[in-house]
Write a structure and sequence with these properties.
Blueprint (H helix, E strand, L loop, with lengths): L27 E12 L2 E12 L3 E6 L5 H7 L8 E6 L2 E2 L5 H10 E4 L11 H12 L4 H14 L15 H13 L5 E5 L7 H18 L2 E5 L3 H7 L2 E6 L2 E6 L1 H11 L9
Parallel strand pairs: 3-8, 3-9, 6-7, 7-8
Antiparallel strand pairs: 1-2, 1-4, 4-5, 9-10
Length: about 270
């Protein structure tokens, strides 16, 4: 389990919202209260309650189709609940104008499961895209920040490559670099290690944890890989039958799951 990172490391300013003070360490930064979501006859989420505090890594686990990715997208307003309330940085998303939600998204970035890289841009251009489009930083400064991230995520020399030439693990790292290049406060990660082999999963997990510490991030991850969850989670919740049935440390959730299942022989399997 990774140690919680400080929520506001010295000198860390959001480059897309430089005049907005960072959220205080330990304060609730993502809050869901009684959240419901329906898709036709499917009542997917049935009253989800969750508080994520600044500086922690929270993992959402659960079976495929349980609504994990939908829940993640609610946290920055990409999906709206049918009932209940979602707050980001203390603001009720449903009550805000789109311009106000857009400002909050500058502070809360997302790593999509499908990478969402721009095929016609190089790795360096993809990483720097949020800054070239959303900030007044000069091109040399953007290039410097991109090179720092390429080195941090062990992608040095890949800046001139196109996404089509990258392995799955490299694409994951490029997507992570693009999400953090602007110094956001919160990063939402949707299945960041899906499709990778166990060695690459461990490698990407280590880089996620390293980035979280250095950038002082609050991280919310959707993941079905329990070995990965054990390494990354400060706290985790299991989404089952439309609610977060268990919330606690990895060990607490694992023990609870084993107590409920006679087939479980070990509290940490």
């Amino acid at each position: 389990m990774s140690a919680p990172a400080p929520a506001a490391p010295a000198g860390r300013v959001n480059l897309l919202a430089p005049h907005v003070a960072r959220w205080p360490a330990g304060a609730p930064v993502v809050e869901l209260r009684g959240v419901h979501k329906r898709f036709g006859d499917l009542h997917l989420l049935r009253g989800v309650d969750l508080t994520v505090r600044a500086g922690e890594t929270f993992v959402i686990a659960g079976q495929s189709g349980s609504g994990k990715s939908v829940l993640l997208k609610m946290m920055n307003g990409l999906v709206a609940p049918d009932e209940g309330e979602v707050r980001l940085f203390g603001q009720p998303l449903a009550a805000l104008r789109e311009a106000e939600r857009a400002l909050l998204r500058r502070r809360c970035t997302m790593v999509f499961q499908s990478y969402a890289l721009i095929d016609s841009m190089t790795v360096a251009e993809n990483i720097g895209f949020p800054l070239t489009q959303g900030s007044a930083l000069p091109a040399p400064e953007v290039a410097r920040l991109v090179e720092e991230l390429l080195a941090l995520l062990e992608l040095s020399g890949a800046g001139g490559l196109l996404p089509a030439s990258l392995s799955g693990g490299m694409r994951k790292r490029v997507a992570l670099a693009r999400a953090v290049v602007s110094n956001p406060e919160v990063v939402l990660l949707d299945e960041p290690t899906t499709g990778l082999d166990p060695v690459m999963i461990e490698f990407v997990d280590a880089l996620i944890a390293k980035t979280q510490r250095l950038y002082g991030l609050t991280s919310v991850l959707v993941s079905h890989d329990m070995t990965s969850n054990r390494r990354l989670a400060d706290r985790m919740g299991v989404l089952s039958e439309g609610v977060l049935a268990e919330v606690g440390s990895f060990e607490e959730v694992s023990r609870s799951a084993c107590t409920a299942s006679p087939r479980c022989s070990s509290p940490t399997t």
